[in-house]
Specification:
cell inner membrane, minor pseudopilin epsh fold, 10 strands
Length: about 180
């Protein structure tokens, strides 16, 4: 007698589910690493970069006994160092760090909003370099509130706030009507 064993060739439901979970995880990782998550992620990275730069400059100012500053415009920022021999601010790099085209920067010093110039294609003359934010060798920082946001009205807005002694941290800006 012949035994007839009916074995189906194919995949079980569990095997198919495991493959779908693995594929979903890989696609999720790919989407996040490419940055398809939108400009909010890039804006947060820019804000973290600026907060990190301020922290490094504050430490350098104390360690090197140098005065540093940030020259801000609506689309860019540049690091300056005070040269006591020339009694003038000198740029540390040839060109400022440009923000993405869809982002803008604004600043309040000691509660007063400053009108930032638009970044121009030409370099300003060396005598006009005067920073808005100061990072002093005494450890003090200009009290400020930097707002970094998307240009569109309903876009994400992030803020960096310092009371003059503490380093800023990146926070989401609260709408004017919701402040507590």
């Amino acid at each position: 007698m012949r035994q007839h064993v009916n074995q189906a060739k194919g995949f079980t439901l569990i095997e198919l589910l495991v493959v779908l979970v693995i594929l979903g995880s890989l696609i999720g990782i790919a989407v996040l690493s490419v940055g398809i998550a939108g400009p909010g992620r890039e804006l947060h990275n820019e804000a973290e970069r600026l907060a990190g730069l301020i922290g490094v400059l504050a430490e350098e100012a104390v360690l090197d006994n140098q005065e540093y500053g940030l020259l801000l415009s609506r689309e860019a920022y540049q690091v300056l160092r005070y040269d006591s021999t020339k009694q003038a601010w000198q740029a540390l790099s040839n060109k400022p760090h440009q923000l993405p085209a869809w982002a803008q920067l604004s600043v309040e010093l000691e509660g007063t909003a400053l009108e930032l110039p638009a970044a121009e294609g030409e370099e300003p003359s060396k005598t006009t370099l005067v920073p808005q934010l100061l990072l002093l060798s005494s450890g003090e920082i200009s009290p400020f509130r930097l707002l970094l946001g998307e240009r569109r009205a309903d876009g994400l807005r992030l803020q960096l706030v310092s009371d003059g002694f503490q380093l800023p941290k990146v926070e989401s800006e609260q709408p004017a009507g919701r402040r507590q």
